[in-house]
Design a protein that fits this description.
- The complex is a heterodimer of chains A (about 475) and B (about 325).
- Chain A contains 17 helices and five strands.
- Chain A is mainly alpha-helical and about 475 residues long.
- In chain A, strands 1-2-3 form a three-stranded antiparallel beta sheet. In chain A, strands 4-5 form a two-stranded antiparallel sheet.
- The chains are: A mainly alpha (about 475), B mainly alpha (about 325).
- At the A-B interface, helix 10, helix 11, helix 14 and helix 16 of A face helix 1, helix 2, helix 7, helix 8 and helix 12 of B.
């Protein structure tokens, strides 16, 4: 095999998360009361659009989560039956797919779509004298002979080719989608197509296909252009900003989801126990979360991360690679963010369990002598799951934003890790340059903005669909 | 009333003890003082003598909990736990790792923090409540729906963007205010305008949306229908009845953060170079000054609990249905 898989800690948790989501999806599909709210989410055009956008991000994140180590080329001198050697650096599938972007480094800053460096360099002339000029980029627009004259035309052609490819791919996907719809309904393809075009379907398929079309167009155009330009420019050490931005997607998604996931068992157990058993159990658990809540979140995170740094400097030999260390720090950050944010969920669950405890069917179960464990798992737990789900969705966007702030304060993810926070942190002083280097900031902020906006809008739709109280208000 | 105050204050004691124990475990048990010394001294191979010297200079050379070398009460007081943790209860913060008096620093730096945080809170409240009230008046119109989308977009923008963008546009391009810095007395005003403005703008999205929801929830209640049935105009209903009642959750939400205003904002202060507690904390974090971080954790917890107690009182003051017992 030319590669061996590597599973980092966070990868394992992502796989657990995906398995949980799939399991829940299959379970929910067979239970009408669970399916109904999700159908409401999908019926809303906003829900459909944001779900597709989030799906696009998730796809990038998942590709970046499957890690492998490549097999090294065996030289002629090694015996043919010698054990295979694998490269020490851990790569993700996304790294392999974007190999050109990753390796095509320039010397330093260059603007988006530039063919020349952003700063002047001393270039040695044929006659031996030095001349300060903007030298040509090694990779940006390298296929052009006369960069200034041909660039605009080249960009336009590539955009057109990308758009065409995107349209063709989109046409295939839409056709397949319509065919599947027609088959499921047992109607003719033309009729289903007409219905979708008129927007008369129960689920907003027209909106979905248009969104998909926009995503395909943008994706294919970006891919086509990125093949020969740095579409978001390059940073101080010449790394492609587009590549950094795409790599940061995984970090943002992980912080947003794993934080809630890792603290979920504790919040569920303690919150339900406090509400269900009351008495001294309740007092103790309330004391615990009030105490944790009393410490300002940023300071608790700062203290914990400082301590982690002390530990890591003193036990440097325990980590085999930089990637592994950065990964453990990310996991730890999720944990500590979870410690500061689980108290809200715990309080909500406690309140709900207090209410559910007095409900007739729980009282009946108690009177019939059903054990506490069975009551908790059969009657209470399924009835609080919608709170868990809503917390997961509502907290997501806040956590993505928090990552950027924490990385700015240097208590976020490892400085070697790609994240929007680290991009902003390293680029913010460049606004003081003349002329301004704006592209790193712009790329990081806009990718983060689209993700957070989609997550916020999606969270609103989910909340409206799951919270019957809110539905009556509007 | 007096008994209630006393009980609430007593209730705060175990929480503070808990916070104290937690920070003690975090700072001294997870990593021994030796590790801290090695980290601070920075070199890979640090001699045990250097570690010993550093610990002595910073008062970390005592046993953690129990000192067997002395007698009597000193067995417990001559320890790291007593020196570094118990003394916090008397607000004796001790010296920072570079030898400055933390207590004096905090007393001096909390005022600039307050000078930013208080105007942001007051102006922000005024702006958010008026906009939200306007949206409640125009509810379910295109103006309202469009504004809600704008609000969601506003709250999806990173706080860092507001600061960086605001500094860039208002200071660098338009030269309306100095980019950063601070001065004493009235001269501080020109340095305060920009951070306060940016603080207010970055809070509009979340604040206004939240207050709009509060107003809409209040509008659907029975007494509002009664007021309308009496023939009151919609504006009068909103301002006299809805606003008055919605102020209760708004007020309690504000009171709980009042004491924490002293702590300042980490981002704003470090970007604008305000010598407040927020930038103090940031500097401590980047210098890995454990003594300051520890003190700020404790101070933050004290202020948070103070906020909780004040919230209870304010509830009783504004809502006649609630009595303190």
């Amino acid at each position: 095999m030319p590669l061996i898989p590597v599973i980092l800690w966070t990868d394992a948790l992502v796989f657990v998360l995906i398995a949980l989501a799939l399991g829940f999806g299959i379970y929910a599909a067979h239970h009408e009361h669970l399916r109904a709210p999700w159908r409401r989410v999908l019926r809303s055009p906003v829900g459909m659009v944001t779900l597709l956008v989030l799906g696009g991000y998730a796809l990038i994140g998942v590709f970046d989560t499957v890690h492998v180590r490549l097999k090294l080329e065996t030289s002629a001198s090694t015996a043919p039956d010698a054990p295979a050697q694998y490269a020490p650096d851990v790569m993700s599938l996304l790294d392999l797919a974007l190999n050109d972007l990753r390796t095509q480094q320039e010397k330093t800053y260059s603007a988006p779509f530039a063919t020349h460096l952003f700063v002047k360099e001393a270039i040695e002339q044929p006659d031996g004298s030095l001349n300060r000029a903007y030298s040509r980029l090694q990779f940006g627009g390298r296929n052009l002979h006369d960069a200034d004259a041909e660039r605009a035309a080249d960009i336009a052609t590539r955009t057109l080719i990308g758009a065409l490819k995107g349209l063709i791919a989109w046409a295939f996907v839409s056709a397949g989608w319509l065919w599947w719809l027609a088959r499921r309904r047992g109607e003719s393809l033309t009729r289903v197509a007409a219905e979708v075009r008129a927007g008369q379907t129960a689920l907003p398929w027209r909106t979905a296909l248009i969104t998909l079309g926009v995503l395909f167009l943008l994706g294919f155009i970006a891919a086509e252009l990125a093949a020969s330009y740095h579409i978001f420019g390059t940073d101080k050490v010449g790394e492609d900003v587009f590549y950094q931005t795409l790599k940061s997607v995984r970090t943002g998604l992980l912080i947003g989801t794993l934080t809630t996931l890792v603290m979920l068992p504790a919040a569920l157990l303690l919150g339900i126990a406090a509400g269900y058993f009351r008495g001294w159990v309740d007092d103790l658990i309330q004391y615990l979360y009030t105490t944790l809540n009393a410490i300002p979140g940023v300071l608790l995170i700062a203290a914990a991360i400082l301590m982690l740094q002390v530990y890591m400097t003193n036990h440097a030999d325990e980590f085999t690679s930089v990637v592994e260390r950065a990964d453990l720090r990310l996991l730890f950050l999720c944990l500590i963010l979870g410690v500061t944010s689980w108290t809200g969920l715990c309080r909500l669950l406690r309140g709900e369990a207090l209410k559910l405890r007095e409900v007739e069917y729980v009282q009946a179960a108690l009177a019939l002598g059903v054990g506490h464990f069975t009551i908790l798992t059969r009657h209470i737990l399924p009835n609080v799951m919608h709170i868990v789900l809503m917390t997961l969705v509502l907290d997501f966007s806040g956590l993505v934003l928090a990552e950027a702030v924490l990385s700015y304060v240097n208590i976020g993810v490892d400085p070697t890790m790609n994240s929007w926070g680290n991009m902003i942190n390293s680029a913010r002083l460049e606004l003081a340059r003349e002329p301004v280097v704006w592209w790193s900031l712009a790329a990081a902020f806009s990718f983060m903005f689209i993700l957070v906006l989609a997550a916020n809008l999606f969270a609103d739709v989910v909340r409206d669909a799951f919270d019957p109280r809110l539905r009556t208000v509007h | 009333m007096g008994v209630y105050v006393l009980r609430r204050l007593l209730y705060a004691v175990p929480i503070l003890i808990g916070v104290n124990l937690l920070t003690f475990v975090l700072f001294f048990v997870v990593n021994a003082p030796d590790d801290m010394a090695r980290m601070q001294l920075g070199e890979k191979r640090v001699t045990p003598e250097a570690v010993q010297l550093w610990k002595q200079a910073h008062g970390y050379d005592k046993p953690l909990l129990f000192n067997a070398t002395t007698t009597g009460i000193a067995q417990f007081t001559d320890t790291i736990f007593f020196d570094k943790s118990v003394r916090l209860f008397a607000f004796q913060f001790g010296a920072s790792d570079d030898g400055r008096n933390i207590g004096a620093d905090i007393a001096q730096r909390m005022w600039p923090s307050l000078a930013i945080a208080l105007p942001v809170l007051i102006v922000g409240l005024a702006v958010n409540i008026s906009v939200a009230l306007g949206l409640a008046l125009l509810r379910a119109t295109y103006v309202d729906i469009g504004s809600v989308v704008v609000l969601v977009a506003l709250l999806s923008i990173s706080g860092l963007f507001y600061i960086i963008g605001g500094q860039f546009v208002l200071s660098k391009l338009l030269h309306l205010a100095p980019i950063s810095g601070y001065d004493t007395g009235l001269n501080a005003l020109k340095f305060l305008v920009l951070p306060v403005l940016i603080g207010v703008i970055s809070g509009i999205g979340a604040g206004t949306r939240w207050y709009r929801t509060l107003f809409l929830e209040e509008i659907s209640k029975d007494y509002v229908r009664t007021a309308r049935a009496k023939g009151l105009s919609e504006t009068r209903v909103l301002v006299r009845h809805v606003l008055g009642n919605a102020l209760i959750p708004i007020l309690t939400g504000v009171v709980v953060v009042l004491p924490l205003l002293f702590m300042g904002s980490l981002l704003t202060e470090s970007f604008f170079g305000i010598p407040g507690l927020g930038s103090y904390t940031i500097d401590a974090i980047s210098n890995q000054d454990f003594a300051i971080v520890r003190s700020m954790v404790f101070l933050g917890a004290v202020l948070y609990i103070l906020g909780l107690i004040l919230t209870d009182f304010s509830y009783a003051l504004v809502d006649p249905r609630i009595r303190l017992q």
